[in-house]
Amino acid sequence: MAKRCEICSKGPMSGNNVSHAHNTTRRRFLPNLNRVRAVIGGRIQRIRVCAACLRSNKVQKPAT
Fold first, then answer.
1. Calpha distance 9→2 (Å, rounded)
2. pTM of the full predicted structure?
3. Are 5 and 53 in contact (CB under 8 A)?
C-alpha cells in the first residue's frame, strides 16, 4: 500500500540525515497519514489522508 494521501496525493519526500561531523546519508520524510472514515460520493469509505487535509476540512466525516 502506497504511503500517499488519497486527497492531495502528498507522498514521501527525500532528504539527508546530517551527523555532527556533517556526514550525510539519504533518508525519507514520510507524510503523517491517518486512516479515517469519510463520505465519498454519498457513501462511507475508509481512506488514508494526511493530517493537513484533516485540519483543513478537505475530508467530510460521516455523522455518528
1. 10
2. 0.83
3. yes
